[in-house]
Structure to design on (343 residues):
């Protein structure tokens, strides 16, 4: 597997991270509103991709229904705000608890009864679909008609209520993405992180060494779900409307996992790189199709799919690992492949 992020050359990776962060902090000073919204979308998918990567990239548990936790987080915080006036930061706590409880139920059913691999992936899809159908009939939360948050023009930003201009959400999502990066790095360098990688590579061998496989996989599911629910809170308060079909649909789960897949599953920077590449490519493709007046239904998806296929064929481990090697941010083994991260 890949050696991750900035441990290859002392100081070099940290400098690159600092420069990139400084540029992103200064970006609102010289980019237009459209680019601000694109960057917010990138940060959102980078954060959600990092949360999903904990399950799949670190612990080897494939989830194809991660939109479940986005939706639970979004509806929990938005519902408390709309009906009871509870601020989103308090609602975020409720979102984390609810998503964590659901993750415990899902994980227990799967791991206690030996559901793994593709069957575990199907189980995650089933939970997301159950939620979509269920929320379609909860009138308290708007049902299929949608739940709408109050919207008005804001002269100043209200950080406590997450009511304000896009620039406020830009910086919030940037910080959230960087915090997730730090959390993931800390987890990987912890004992639990090494247990996860052992389970990912060979679960039976890990169990024979005395690793509590069930508990470790449960940790991965719960931590990933809790982090993803936070993304749902910001999703709700940024877009100000929620529909079950919008937030729980499997296409939303696919959007979350594409970043890590394209950037590099199991790496720290891969989900971020993947989110940048995919979002910029998607927006560029939209503009290009409009220039050539290719407005046929599905035209964008066809070109999008072809481009993704090319990337996967040429760089099966993702975009980030070869970039990391080229920049000297990854040690190489005798075979020239990145090695696992060392303490």
């Amino acid at each position: 597997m890949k050696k991750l992020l900035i441990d290859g050359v002392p100081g070099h990776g940290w400098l690159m991270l600092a420069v990139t962060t400084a540029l992103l902090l200064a970006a609102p000073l010289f980019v237009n509103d459209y680019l601000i919204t694109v960057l917010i979308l990138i940060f959102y998918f980078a954060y959600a991709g990092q949360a999903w990567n904990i399950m799949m990239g670190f612990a080897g548990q494939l989830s194809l229904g991660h939109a479940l936790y986005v939706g639970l987080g979004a509806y929990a915080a938005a519902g408390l705000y709309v009906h009871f006036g509870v601020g989103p930061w308090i609602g975020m706590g409720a979102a984390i608890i609810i998503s964590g409880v659901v993750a415990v139920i899902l994980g227990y059913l799967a791991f206690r009864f030996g559901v793994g691999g593709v069957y575990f992936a199907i189980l995650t899809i089933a939970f997301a679909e159950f939620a979509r159908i269920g929320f379609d009939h909860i009138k308290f939360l708007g049902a299929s008609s949608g739940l709408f948050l109050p919207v008005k023009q804001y002269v100043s930003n209200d950080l406590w209520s997450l009511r304000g201009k896009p620039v406020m959400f830009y910086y919030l999502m940037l910080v959230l993405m960087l915090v997730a990066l730090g959390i993931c790095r800390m987890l990987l360098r912890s004992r639990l992180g090494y247990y996860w990688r052992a389970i990912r590579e060979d679960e039976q061998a890990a169990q024979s060494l005395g690793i509590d496989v069930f508990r470790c996989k449960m940790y991965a599911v719960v931590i990933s779900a809790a982090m993803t629910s936070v993304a749902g809170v910001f999703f709700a308060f940024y877009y100000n409307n929620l529909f079950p079909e919008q937030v729980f649909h499997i296409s939303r789960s696919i959007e979350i996992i594409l970043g890590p897949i394209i950037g590099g599953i199991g790496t720290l920077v891969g989900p971020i790189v993947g989110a940048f590449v995919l979002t910029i490519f998607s927006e560029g493709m939209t503009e290009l199709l409009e220039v050539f007046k290719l407005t046929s239904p599905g035209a964008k998806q066809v070109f999008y799919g072809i481009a993704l296929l090319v990337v996967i064929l040429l760089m099966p481990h993702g975009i980030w690992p070869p970039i990391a090697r080229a920049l000297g941010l990854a040690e190489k083994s005798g075979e020239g492949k990145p090695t696992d991260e060392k303490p």
Residues 79 and 140 are 8 Å apart (CA to CA). The beta strands are 147-148, 241-242. The two ends are 15 Å apart (CA to CA).
